[in-house]
Amino acid sequence: MLTDAKQFDKVIELSGAMQSMHIADKPTEISREVGGSFALFGGYITGRHIELVPNERIVQAWRVSNWDAGVYSIARFELVEQGSGTRIVFDHTGFPKGTGEHLASGWKSNYWEPLAKFLA
Fold it and tell me: What's the distance, Cα to Cα, between the start and end of the chain in Å?
C-alpha cells in the first residue's frame, strides 16, 4: 500500500480524507524507486523515497504542502514479522514545531485506521 498508488487509493477511500480534501484534483503518484517521488492526498503530502528495502523498511523524506519551502521530515516504516502477519513500526521525525498533534491525528485517521479496515 505504501509503494503502490492503486493500493494506496483503495486504503484512503476508507478514510475521512476523501470527504475533506480535494483528492481527485491530482492523482496519487508513488514511485517504486529509491530517490523516486510520491504525491498523496491530491498533492497535500509529497516527498521522495530515501530507502526501500523490500519486506523490511521504507524511509521517506516527507512534507505537507503548507510547510515552508525546503522543509522535509523523515517518515520511517519498519516491517517486522509477527506470527503469520506483519507489524509496522513507524517513526516520524523532523517535522516543524507545533505540528506533532495534527500529524499524529492525520496518521491515525488517514493511514492506520483505514489500513486496519482494508486488511480486515
Answer: 14
Measured in whole angstroms, the distance separating CA 82 from the mean position of its chain's CA atoms is 22
Which among 80, 81, 100 is positioned nearest to 92, based on CA atoms? 100
58 DSSP β-pair partners: 52, 77
Cell of 47: 516527498
Mean confidence (pLDDT) of the chain: 91
> What's residue 12's pLDDT?
85
CA-nearest of 52, 25, 24 to 37 is 52
What's the CA angle centered on 74, arms 33 and 3, to 5 degrees?
A: 30
Q: Global pTM?
A: 0.88
